[in-house]
Specification:
This is Alpha-N-acetylglucosaminidase. The chain is α/β, with parallel strands linked by helices. The protein is 41% helix and 17% strand.
């Protein structure tokens, strides 16, 4: 009898303990949510009784919130700290009281809150995912806690409950390498500078802009503790890093028989190639377990872990055909899962699915099924990363149909609204509002569990992110026209007719199609042609209407957006000027080349000055973040160099990918780079642009500049004073010009010339034509190749001549099926001038 009584007492106490722990967590989340709301609306901190918060149960595993305002008191009930914050933000926007962006906020909280009817929202998704591995490069690499706190607040307000948390990945990994016996030098050669760490983590590159000092790891580990604590206090479920199979080359010194595969990416030299440890090698599981042990020892227990082994990569070579390949993939999946679950049997392996749509030539139903085959269904989460690309850019079918609902594995519907943190306006607004409904209603939806977004960079295109985060809490069709009215009234406080017309024009132009790499021509390597930003007259009209809308000048978000719109407007005028300068240069019209450059210079400096008044679009801010981590002048300069490189040269070979429209970057980099190129060409010299760019990367500081006092009126004046380029300076090219050759770049001996080709220019590519423009000697062409990541993917080899006359000067090339060339390609031609070096011409891109 005593035994049974004791057992019942024990169970009773255990139950109460669980209830007590649950109550503690609810209180923790409620107070964390209260703090977010108070930071958003500081006036509420003076009257805390006017905000009542309560944690309630989820509805069938889905987050829910309820809001009601009565008697000046706002009541919010939600199923988590994040749901409470989302409820507050929904109330704020629905009642048009303000909006919070990354850059700024405009809150118009009344002294006496009017009554508002009860509202209840249940999310159709269990999880709300956020971030991309490379956001930690293009936006976040040098963030301090102050910026991270704002970001986590932004996440909570926008209903994000499953963010990537990848800070300090390296701080844990080096403990593993040291336990194995690797030397400091072997470890240092494995890593990159902080801004390039995302690509090192995915095995794309190693040994670039490093090494990382011990102070970096110590600081990042401390930062990650604060990040994880804040996320979990709000009820978020962070996704943390796991071992993906990439190891320092020095591992061969310790394990000479280790099975390593060298993996190349993007045409990088061998010294930057990563080494992938075969999952069939017992060392793979050993390292994976060591990593998880070190992680849990430092940060405690976690459930979701990310491991990506083949981001934009070829599979390791094998001689056994499809069966051997699938066996390798099956083993890899099993070993990654076993390593992740070694310290926590409830752990879940998370994998990005960018390659599912991007590399269909590799990833098909057989290869993906093999990778997943030995992982328990409930211990895997697939991020269907880029549904927007499948639907509106690649147009290659939705992954959930192609991969049959992802073979019973839970998955997250996701979009990639941005590449590289580019600032230009792009995206299919109607798709971002309603595209998720196709997944929710699909017969192939399988175990669809979440919705999210994986932007490569943030702090841009706010309207798209508001659309996506709102959509994740809605299972009905959205009227986008009505949405835009609500958006503007919440964001700016009003919706005048001119604003309405502006947004209708944006919706029909820049926000009607997705450009993967929207860049102005002046953001590309000098000599390149290929603007992918919307430059239509309707878009220009919309920009002008927006900036000239009256009565909103007191809104900080309107002032910020007016600067962005003006920068776009002037950017288009800069584009016209630089293209005209190139055409005049090709025709050796020195006078008009100089005139075009005068226009380019004027618009560039004016746009740059306005951007000095923007809260985030400034090079000085980016560099300040980087330098703040240095513990010595040398370290500060090293971090600055790394930060400069990422937003410009990147590698090379990845050039000008980030394409930021930033103050400082325009006046100190884009403008003088083009001026150097043009002046060199006018002097008949072959400019060494790589040397010029590297010198800039290794410099420090930003030149002085000041924003106008009255930004909005200055923007309006700038638009009035930026008419189209005079018709006398414009030329009409017969085709799309992507490059040129000059007397300085060719010789009478056979040599190779290379020209970059953007991914936008590869759409419907039919071939290229060599057009002779001036000189005494023709250009002889032996053949042309199209290369992606340093590999030939198309070739046309025949004898051609560009001169007077020309013959055989068209070369047929097209992008092979299944290859998307996200980072662009390059054209390589074997050429020589005939009888002398006086030969100038241009390369025309011909499309279907």
């Amino acid at each position: 009898m005593t035994f049974y009584f004791s057992k019942i007492l024990f169970l009773f106490m255990l139950t109460n303990l669980f209830v007590f722990a649950e109550d503690i967590q609810k209180n923790r989340e409620r107070e964390a949510a209260r703090s977010v709301i108070m930071r958003t609306v500081p006036s509420l901190a003076k009257a805390p009784e006017k905000l009542q918060l309560e944690i309630i149960e989820k509805e069938d595993g889905h987050d829910v919130f309820e809001t009601k305002a009565s008697g000046g008191i706002l009541n919010i009930r939600g199923s988590s700290g994040t749901a409470l914050c989302r409820g507050f933000y929904d109330f704020l926007k629905t009642n048009r009281l303000g909006m919070v962006s990354w850059d700024n906020k405009d809150i118009r909280w009344p002294a006496q809150l009017p009554d508002a009817a009860p509202r209840r929202i249940v999310s159709p998704f269990r999880n709300h995912y956020y971030l991309n591995v490379v956001t930690y490069g293009y936006t976040m690499p040098y963030w301090t806690w102050e910026r991270w706190e704002k970001e986590i607040d932004w996440m909570a307000l926008h209903g994000i409950d499953m963010p990537l948390a990848l800070v300090a990945t390296e701080g844990i990994a080096i403990r593993v390498w040291k336990r194995l016996g690797l030397t400091e030098k072997e470890i240092e050669e494995f890593y990159t500078g902080p801004a390039h760490l995302p690509w090192q983590r995915m095995g794309n590159i190693v040994n670039h802009d490093g090494p990382l000092p011990a102070s970096w790891h110590k600081e990042q580990i401390a930062l990650q503790h604060r990040i994880l604590h804040r996320m979990k206090s709000l009820g978020m479920t962070p996704i943390c890093p796991a071992f993906s199979g990439f190891v320092p080359r020095g591992i061969l010194r310790l394990y000479p028989e280790a099975k390593l595969h060298r993996l190349g990416w993007g045409g990088w030299p061998q010294k930057n190639h990563a080494h992938f440890l075969s999952p069939e090698d017992p060392l793979f599981l050993k390292i994976g377990r060591l990593y998880m042990q070190e992680w849990q020892k430092e940060f405690g227990r976690n459930t979701y872990f990310l491991a990506d082994s083949f981001n934009e990569m070829e599979l390791p070579e094998n001689k056994g055909g499809a069966e051997a390949r699938n066996n390798m993939l099956s083993s890899l999946g099993e070993q990654i899962y076993r390593s992740i679950s070694s310290t926590n049997p409830d752990a879940v392996w998370v994998m990005q699915g960018w390659m599912f749509g991007y590399q269909r030539n590799i990833w098909n139903a057989d290869t993906l099924k093999a990778l997943l085959s030995k992982v328990p269904d409930d211990k895997m989460l697939l991020l269907d990363l880029a549904a927007d690309y499948n639907k509106t850019f690649w147009r290659n079918g939705m992954n959930w149909d192609v991969f049959k609902g992802f073979f019973n594995k839970p998955w997250v519907y996701s979009v990639v609204p941005n590449m590289g943190g580019k600032c230009a306006m792009t995206g299919v607004m109607d798709f971002y509002a309603n595209g998720h409904l196709e997944a929710l209603n699909s017969s192939s939806r399988g175990h669809l569990s979440g919705m999210g977004m994986a932007p490569e960079g943030i702090e841009n295109n706010d309207v798209i992110y508001e659309l996506v985060t709102d959509a994740a809490w809605r299972d009905r069709q959205e009227d986008v026209e009505q949405y835009l009215e609500n958006y503007c009234r919440a964001r700016y406080g009003n919706y005048p007719d001119s604003m309405k017309e502006a947004w209708n024009l944006f919706r029909r132009t820049a926000y009607s199609n997705l450009k993967d790499h929207p860049r102005f021509n002046w953001q590309m390597k000098p000599g390149t042609r290929g603007c992918s930003v919307n430059t239509s007259e309707d878009f220009l009209k919309g920009l002008s209407l927006f900036v000239n809308t009256r009565g909103l000048e007191q809104s900080p978000l309107f002032r910020q957006d007016a600067v962005e719109m003006t920068a776009h407007y002037l950017g288009i005028r800069m584009n016209e000027a630089i293209l005209a300068a190139l055409e005049a240069l090709d025709e050796q019209d020195m006078e008009n080349t100089e005139k075009c450059m005068e226009y380019f210079r004027k618009y560039a400096l004016r746009a740059d000055s306005f951007l000095e008044g923007h809260p985030t679009w400034r090079l000085s801010r980016w560099l300040s973040f980087a330098r703040s981590h240095g513990t010595s002048p040398e370290e500060k300069n090293k971090y600055e160099q790394n930060a400069r490189r990422l937003v410009t040269r990147w590698g090379p070979p990845v050039d000008d990918y980030a394409a930021k429209i930033w103050s400082g970057l325009i006046r100190d980099y884009y403008l003088p780079r083009w001026e150097h190129f043009i002046q060199s060409r006018l002097s008949e010299k072959n400019p060494d642009m790589g040397a010029w760019e590297e010198k800039w990367v290794r410099s420090t500081g930003v030149s002085a500049a000041h924003a106008p006092g009255d930004l909005v009126n200055a923007c309006r004046q700038a638009i009035r004073e930026a008419p189209p380029l005079p018709s006398s300076l414009k030329r009409k090219a017969a085709g799309s010009i992507i490059g040129n050759w000059t007397s300085a770049t060719v010789s009478t001996e056979w040599s190779y010339l290379d020209w970059p080709v953007s991914s936008a220019d590869l759409e419907k590519l039919r071939g290229v034509r060599f057009v002779f423009t001036s000189g005494s000697h023709a250009l002889e062409i032996d053949g042309v190749e199209l290369l992606e990541n340093g590999k030939i993917i198309a070739r046309d080899q025949h004898a051609g001549l560009a001169g007077k006359p020309s013959r055989g000067n068209f070369y047929k090339l097209s992008l092979p099926k299944g290859i998307h060339a996200n980072n662009g390609c390059s054209l390589r031609a074997r050429v020589r001038s005939v009888g002398g070096k006086s030969s100038n011409g241009k390369l025309e891109l011909i499309k279907e």
